[in-house]
């Protein structure tokens, strides 16, 4: 039984989720075995909209699922399909809105409310109104990312909240919204590069040589040229008018797969946004890695129909690489490799 308390009680994840579990188990259908002891340490993984099956394949079904947030036992594992990771979330019992807000303020300064799975959002919104939230403005590419941590929280019921003060993304739910350039780039694909450079905290420097494969209509080439890099831009289709003539852009109407390291020579960055089967991209990348011909890679792995988990695992196994599902990725992952 819940007692009246002057201060909200911060229960350990284990005991609180246990109590919550026993109170709510009749309404939960995600717990496979009711007798399974609950974990002492939890991690929450938030799937990008529409990609919960991909995420649960990586992290498992977890002990509790709230919409597209999956709570799993143990510390965080590397999960490409997690758009945000809630480290060590806590369960906090509270009696009033003020108490809940104070409890969250005690844990962290800025909070994002995750409420899309809640049937009634009113109480959660009243709590969130008392907190400092994520920056509401769109993020301007090239400016410093918010460096104060952004926590995430949600309601388990109207007197229990779940909160992680330590999330992997500084953007609410990992969803970075840029102040878009509606006139310069010829397609919205440029947002993927803006996002990856923002997350990496690194981008091509003026004068560096970039190979942009599958570049048409030219969003990525536009980003790279704007950064002052030199770009060998390759596609079978033409670039949008004006882009091929920009200073530093060398556009070639050729196949991406005909670009051999021995022909092009060493590059600082290799980019690929080519529409092709994942295994074809893997062969291309392997060829360049074996030749040691590129210092950094940013490549979109595009899935047609079913997600190709086998090839994902082969990309994942490449040392020093990362796999990300960007907020601007569709049915794709972005593979990133750097010499560090
Ligand atoms: C998603 S679009 C690239 C968008 C581009 N990154 C941008 O920012 O505008 C994919 C491109 O891959 C190109 N492509 C497909 N197969 C190719 C190949 N074998 N060689 C070169 N380009 C190819 C297509 O012509 C298409 O322009």
TrEMBL record:
<dbReference type="Pfam" id="PF01728">
    <property type="entry name" value="FtsJ"/>
</dbReference>
<keyword id="KW-0808">Transferase</keyword>
<dbReference type="GO" id="GO:0032259">
    <property type="term" value="P:methylation"/>
</dbReference>
<keyword id="KW-0489">Methyltransferase</keyword>
<dbReference type="GO" id="GO:0008168">
    <property type="term" value="F:methyltransferase activity"/>
</dbReference>
<dbReference type="InterPro" id="IPR002877">
    <property type="entry name" value="RNA_MeTrfase_FtsJ_dom"/>
</dbReference>
<feature type="domain" description="Ribosomal RNA methyltransferase FtsJ">
    <location>
        <begin position="187"/>
        <end position="275"/>
    </location>
</feature>
<protein>
    <submittedName>
        <fullName>23S rRNA (Cytidine2498-2'-O)-methyltransferase</fullName>
    </submittedName>
</protein>
<dbReference type="InterPro" id="IPR029063">
    <property type="entry name" value="SAM-dependent_MTases_sf"/>
</dbReference>
């Amino acid at each position: 039984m819940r007692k009246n308390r002057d201060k909200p009680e911060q229960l350990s994840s284990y005991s609180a989720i246990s109590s919550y579990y026993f109170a709510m188990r009749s309404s939960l259908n995600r717990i496979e075995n009711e007798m399974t002891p609950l974990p002492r340490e939890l991690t929450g993984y938030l799937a990008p909209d529409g990609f919960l099956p991909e995420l649960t394949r990586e992290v498992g079904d977890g002990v509790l699922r709230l919409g597209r947030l999956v709570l799993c036992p143990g510390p965080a594992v590397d999960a490409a399909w997690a758009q945000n990771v809630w480290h060590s979330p806590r369960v906090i019992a509270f009696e009033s809105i003020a108490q809940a807000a104070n409890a969250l303020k005690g844990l962290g300064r800025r909070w994002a409310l995750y409420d899309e799975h809640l049937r009634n959002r009113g109480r959660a919104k009243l709590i969130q109104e008392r907190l400092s939230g994520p920056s509401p403005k769109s993020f301007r590419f090239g400016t410093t990312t918010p460096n104060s941590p952004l926590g995430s929280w949600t309601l388990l019921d109207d007197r229990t909240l779940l909160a992680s003060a330590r999330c992997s993304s500084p953007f609410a739910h990992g969803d970075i919204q840029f102040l878009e350039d509606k006139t310069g780039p010829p397609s919205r694909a440029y947002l993927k590069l803006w996002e990856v450079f923002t997350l990496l905290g690194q981008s091509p420097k003026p004068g560096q040589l970039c190979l942009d494969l599958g570049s048409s209509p030219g969003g990525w080439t536009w980003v790279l040229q704007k950064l002052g890099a030199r770009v060998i831009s390759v596609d079978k289709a033409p670039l949008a008018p004006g882009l091929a003539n920009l200073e530093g852009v060398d556009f070639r109407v050729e196949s991406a797969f005909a670009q051999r390291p021995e022909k092009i020579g060493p590059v600082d960055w290799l980019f690929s946004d080519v529409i092709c089967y994942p295994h074809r991209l893997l062969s291309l990348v392997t060829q360049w890695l074996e030749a040691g011909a590129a210092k950094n890679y940013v490549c979109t792995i595009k899935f047609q129909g079913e997600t190709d988990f086998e090839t994902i695992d082969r990309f994942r196994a490449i040392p020093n690489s990362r796999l990300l599902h960007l907020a601007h990725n569709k049915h794709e992952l972005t593979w990133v490799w750097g010499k560090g």
